[in-house]
């Protein structure tokens, strides 16, 4: 039941915010998001580390028939695989709202309501146990983010977000075909149609069918993440969107793709992964190197972070396709870690933009002089994202790389470049913006205070918590991952 | 020949609608036009209730000419509901000096009789009569904007092309009769089953079948028989375009579904390739051409072609699942289309500037129906913006809306037949569809424009809200409808 | 690619293809049937038709040739002008005619055709009995309602 509340609560909160006044919208949204965080907290601390689905709900929805078809059901629950994305969504959303406390957006009621609607849809994606419910939320998440980006975005927002929208819809429509196909295949095993993901696992499809189901799913998720040839929407959209929307996109929405790989592709079409997994992995590794090289050359901070995110997500995908326990565990924890880091980085880019009016690295510099707090927080988050030991990024990337290396040494070596390149472009960004002679724009830089400071502080706590004591997360996910491995082999 | 009393009580909607149509004609003699709209709506409600009196039973009426079962009642219900909504959006007719509301309403009700006959026909004669009643009414309504050149042109085009298609339809019926010796659907179906097994010559039958199908495909504007659609939909007054693109399409597909499933299912192997080709063509032409339109109304015309394509997928994958699928799709499509036209009419009416800027409105393109007319609409008119956005989402088949489940059901029906490649085409075209549907949303929400707050009559507002709520409700709880079938 | 063909196969492509072949074969046998039927008539049976045809054609051709050739031809401005009953022409031949002509004409056709339905009823008046009478009254009632509507609408007013 708790899972149902996870979805419904943000919807109720969003509706309340929508009908509140402009002055209290911000606070109301924050209260709503914190309320959601409390529920997530209860889930996290009462979650039992086994391979069972917990806190579930299950109602008939559509297509249930007298012949015993269970049809499409409203059913969701949390297991070890969905736990971390749920935690991420619950944790990051209030931080995103808090990060906007020093800014004013036009039409705030709509703005914050959309963020909360987005949260509800994301929760839905991560807890859905029914294929079509998954698809439903997968698409539903797109609508609020599209409006957020296109209404409050920058100069080119209309064209750019439209590209993003059409890309992702196109991908997910292919997934819809695959789901319809799978749904219609289910009678072969159970005598009646069922759209439950667990029943899809049990399907015994031919290798050819698996091949094309694999691609239908893979393109949907690859567009979302994005992976190498499907990424062209990403940098522009990240840059043109308002920063809260960018944080949602990079922090949480990207994880929908990785989650989909783990939840749907690996167990439903193991044979398809067997045949095409290496192709997908090579695409992912190309993305890692390609994204990193481009990131090194970027001047705009936001664009740089966008490419770094593109590069990191490639590693997660490669880890998933290594089909090893390490790779999967790494992907799960890295989802959380990357979410925390990238939200922090985008927020810092936004703070610098607000204070100096620019994100161009060559116009920045020397910010460290009178900003002790920003300097420290920035450094911690940055180290987290370059995977320094004792930070959250290290745990995830280490597991991922060992998974990939175990799959194939050469691919593992190529993927390992991510750490080197990551250090290069991240430190370059830090050096160019924070160190050196103060530029005219940065001379009067004011240090963080109040809400801005709290956001980064909380993120830094997570960077260290996950880096120093990753077992508190890994032990929760392990049984579910082991369970999943049975379907893969 | 005995005159049985029950024989006239059933098919109550047909009789009620005919009588109320005549009553409306006489109501029109009164000075005041205020009574016409409520009276029409009342008649429609009565017909709607009467329609469902036979719920759960299956009857054959008028000496086995018409069939009434749950499916037919649902299609009739969809058609009546659509008409109810279209009529309730027609409040402005009462103020229009040139308009003849009494006649328009009467013609609408008469045409519904035709639609109901097309939905329940058991005899090809009834199909023909139904098609004609519906079509002739449409020819008149298309040209009802008498002083507008484009309306006149549309009416003439529609009439000429429609008459031609009717000829082909009739020819097909004649050939089928020649081949099978029967006008009755089940008789033709029996012939198809036995003759295929016997392996004899079925030339007459096949030619007749294809001519019949061509005639019907013309009526539902499937490619390559769609050429009349854009001009006619664009030229006709928006109110009647809304009616044409919903009621006529629903009735046409109900008729196609009936004849294909009862009469021609025995020769499925023979016609499915032809129908699949028509489907693919319809999807391609409808969607791709819609992208290039500058006028919203013309886009809606092409969108109606593309939706004919999605509905055809349900027919190509003919099975038991097709029936609820096509009924649901028709309902979802009708709701969104009518709501969209409702907003369009308000927006177009609210832009009197164009006449002054562009001079004679009758000859030039109607710029008040272009996408630009929607610029900035949602700022001052959040309700209209929302109604339009939900309609567009539903037409595009985005989850949370009825349109998604419509597509889902139609696709499932085709997936059963193993026509996955057809689904891939449909899905690609859906992605194209999103492009042009979202142009409106973008214009309304993200572009700047000078739009005043548009005054919406209370009843008009209620209908728009009801359509939107129904669309969302069916999107969230599709079982509401599915439980009926 | 093979999967593509498999899909066709599963949907009965091969059967369909066979059907099309049969369709073509049928077409040919149908055509040969036609020629067989004509063979049962002797060509001489058509002679009366040919005579009739050549007479009809011949009459037209001969008259046209004769009138063109034996009549004297004198051209003048007045003579080459189109005329009507000896009165000089006025305006375009496509002048609009009052809609009332069409209305009366179409109403005439309508009521004229409807009245035809009374003949079979009148012939079988006794057999159809009371029930037939009721149906006829209903029919005439609807017709008269239409007639009343037409009059009230002022269609027949000639002003």
UniProtKB/TrEMBL annotation, chain A:
A Pfam family it matches: Proton_antipo_M
Where is this protein found? Answer: Endomembrane system; Membrane
Domain called NADH:quinone oxidoreductase/Mrp antiporter transmembrane: residue spans: 129-418
Lineage, top-rank taxon, reads Bacteria
**GO MF annotations in UniProt:** NADH dehydrogenase (ubiquinone) activity; NADH dehydrogenase activity; ubiquinone binding
GO annotations under biological process?
Answer: ATP synthesis coupled electron transport; electron transport coupled proton transport
Q: Does the keyword RNA-binding apply?
A: no
| Keywords, ordered alphabetically | Membrane, Transmembrane, Transmembrane helix
* Cellular component GO terms held in the UniProt record: endomembrane system; membrane
> Looking at the keywords, is Transmembrane present?
yes
Family membership? Belongs to the complex I subunit 4 family.
Q: NCBIfam families from the entry? A: NDH_I_M
Q: What is the protein's given name?
A: NADH-quinone oxidoreductase subunit M
| Species, as recorded | Fibrella rubiginis
């Amino acid at each position: 039941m708790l899972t149902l509340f996870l979805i419904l609560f943000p919807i109720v909160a969003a509706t309340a915010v929508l009908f509140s006044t402009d002055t209290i919208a911000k606070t109301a949204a924050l209260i709503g998001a914190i309320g959601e965080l409390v529920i997530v907290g209860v889930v996290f601390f009462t979650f039992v580390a086994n391979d069972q689905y917990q806190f579930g709900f299950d109602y008939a929805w559509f297509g249930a028939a007298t012949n015993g078809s269970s049809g499409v059901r409203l059913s969701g629950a949390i297991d070890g695989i969905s736990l971390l994305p749920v935690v991420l969504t619950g944790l990051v959303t209030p931080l995103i709202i808090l990060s906007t406390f020093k800014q004013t957006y036009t039409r705030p009621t709509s703005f914050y309501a959309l963020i909360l609607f987005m949260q509800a849809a994301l929760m839905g994606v991560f807890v859905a146990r029914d294929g079509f419910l998954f698809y439903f939320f997968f698409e539903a998440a797109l609508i609020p983010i599209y409006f957020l980006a296109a209404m409050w975005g920058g100069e080119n927002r209309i064209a750019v977000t439209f590209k993003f929208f059409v890309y992702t819809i196109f991908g997910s429509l292919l997934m819809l075909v695959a789901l319809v196909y799978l749904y219609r295949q289910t009678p072969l095993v159970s005598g009646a149609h069922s759209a439950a993901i667990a029943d899809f696992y049990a399907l015994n499809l031919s290798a050819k069918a698996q091949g094309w189901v694999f691609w239908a799913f893979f393109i949907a998720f690859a567009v979302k993440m994005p992976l190498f040839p499907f990424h062209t929407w990403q940098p522009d959209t990240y840059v043109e969107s308002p920063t809260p929307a960018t944080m949602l996109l990079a922090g949480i929405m990207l994880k929908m793709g990785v989650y989909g790989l783990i939840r749907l592709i690996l167990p439903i079409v193991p044979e398809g992964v067997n045949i095409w997994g290496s192709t997908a992995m090579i695409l992912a590794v190309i993305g890692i190197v390609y994204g990193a090289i481009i990131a090194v050359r970027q001047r705009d901070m936001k664009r740089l972070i966008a490419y770094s995110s593109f590069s990191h997500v490639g590693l997660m995908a490669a880890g998933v396709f290594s089909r090893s326990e390490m790779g999967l565990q790494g992907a799960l924890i890295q989802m959380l870690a990357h979410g925390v880091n990238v939200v922090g980085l985008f927020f810092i880019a936004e703070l610098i933009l607000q204070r100096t009016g620019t994100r161009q690295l060559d116009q920045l510099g020397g910010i460290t002089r009178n900003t002790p707090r920003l300097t420290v927080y920035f450094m911690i988050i940055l180290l987290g994202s370059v995977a320094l030991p004792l930070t959250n990024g290290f745990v995830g990337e280490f597991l991922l790389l060992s998974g990939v290396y175990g799959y194939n040494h050469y691919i593992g070596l190529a993927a390992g470049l991510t750490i080197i390149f990551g250090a290069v472009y991240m430190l370059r960004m830090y050096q160019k913006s924070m160190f050196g002679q103060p530029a005219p724009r940065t001379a009067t830089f004011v240090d963080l205070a109040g809400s801005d400071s709290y956001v980064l502080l909380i993120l830094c706590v997570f960077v260290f918590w996950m880096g120093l004591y990753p077992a508190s997360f890994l032990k929760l996910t392990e049984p579910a991952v082991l369970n999943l491995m049975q379907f893969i082999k | 020949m005995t005159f049985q009393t029950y024989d006239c009580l059933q098919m109550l909607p047909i009789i009620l609608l005919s009588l109320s149509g005549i009553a409306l004609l006489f109501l029109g003699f009164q000075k005041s036009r205020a009574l016409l709209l409520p009276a029409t709506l009342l008649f429609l409600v009565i017909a709607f209730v009467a329609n469902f009196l036979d719920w759960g039973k299956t009857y054959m009426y008028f000496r086995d000419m018409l069939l009434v079962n749950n499916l037919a009642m649902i299609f009739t219900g969809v058609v009546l509901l659509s008409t109810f909504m279209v009529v309730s959006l027609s409040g402005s007719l009462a103020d229009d000096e040139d308009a003849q509301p009494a006649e328009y309403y009467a013609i609408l009700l008469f045409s519904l009789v035709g639609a109901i006959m097309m939905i329940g026909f058991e005899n090809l004669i009834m199909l023909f009569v139904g098609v004609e009643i519906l079509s002739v009414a449409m020819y008149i309504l298309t040209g009802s904007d008498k002083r507008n050149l484009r309306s006149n042109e549309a009416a003439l085009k529609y009439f000429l092309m429609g008459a031609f298609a009717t000829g082909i339809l009739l020819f097909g019926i004649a050939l089928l009769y020649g081949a099978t010796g029967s006008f009755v659907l089940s008789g033709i179906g029996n012939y198809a089953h036995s003759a295929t097994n016997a392996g004899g010559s079925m030339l007459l039958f096949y030619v007749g079948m294809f001519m019949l199908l061509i005639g019907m495909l013309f009526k539902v504007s499937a490619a390559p028989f769609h050429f009349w659609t854009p001009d006619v939909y664009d030229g006709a007054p928006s109110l009647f375009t809304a009616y044409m693109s919903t009621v006529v399409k629903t009735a046409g597909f109900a008729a196609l579904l009936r004849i294909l499933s009862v009469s021609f299912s025995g020769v499925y192997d023979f016609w499915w390739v032809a129908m699949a080709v028509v489907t693919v063509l319809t999807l391609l032409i409808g969607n791709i051409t819609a992208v290039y339109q500058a006028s919203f109304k013309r886009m809606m015309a092409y969108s109606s072609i593309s939706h004919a394509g999605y509905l055809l997928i349900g027919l190509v994958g003919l099975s038991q699942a097709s029936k609820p699928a096509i009924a649901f799709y028709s309902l979802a499509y009708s709701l969104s289309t009518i709501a969209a036209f409702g907003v369009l009419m308000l927006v177009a009416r609210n832009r009197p500037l164009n006449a002054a800027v562009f001079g004679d409105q009758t000859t030039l393109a109607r710029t008040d129906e272009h996408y630009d007319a929607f610029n900035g609409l949602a700022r001052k008119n959040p309700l209209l913006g929302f109604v339009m956005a939900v309609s567009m989402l539903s037409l595009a088949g985005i989850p949370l809306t009825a349109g998604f489940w419509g597509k889902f059901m139609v696709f499932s029906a085709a997936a059963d037949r193993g026509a996955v490649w057809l689904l891939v085409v449909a899905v690609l075209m859906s992605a194209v569809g999103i492009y042009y549907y979202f142009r409106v949303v973008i214009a309304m929400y993200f572009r700047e424009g000078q739009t005043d707050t548009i005054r919406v009559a209370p009843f008009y507002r209620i209908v728009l809200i009801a359509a939107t709520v129904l669309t969302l409700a069916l999107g969230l709880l599709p079982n509401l409808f599915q439980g009926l079938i | 690619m093979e999967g593509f063909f498999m899909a066709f196969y599963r949907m009965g492509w091969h059967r369909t293809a066979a059907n099309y072949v049969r369709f073509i074969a049928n077409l040919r046998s149908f055509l040969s049937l036609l020629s067989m039927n004509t063979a049962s008539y002797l060509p001489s049976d058509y002679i009366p038709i040919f005579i009739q045809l050549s007479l009809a054609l011949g009459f037209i051709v001969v008259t046209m040739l004769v009138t063109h050739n034996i009549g004297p031809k004198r051209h003048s401005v007045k003579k080459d002008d189109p005329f009507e009953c000896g009165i000089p022409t006025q305006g375009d031949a496509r002048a609009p005619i009052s809609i009332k002509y069409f209305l009366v004409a179409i109403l005439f056709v309508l009521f004229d055709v409807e009245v035809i339905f009374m003949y079979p009823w009148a012939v079988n008046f006794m057999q159809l009995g009371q029930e037939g009478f009721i149906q006829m009254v209903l029919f005439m009632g609807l017709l008269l309602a239409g007639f009343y509507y037409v009059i009230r609408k002022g269609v027949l007013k000639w002003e």
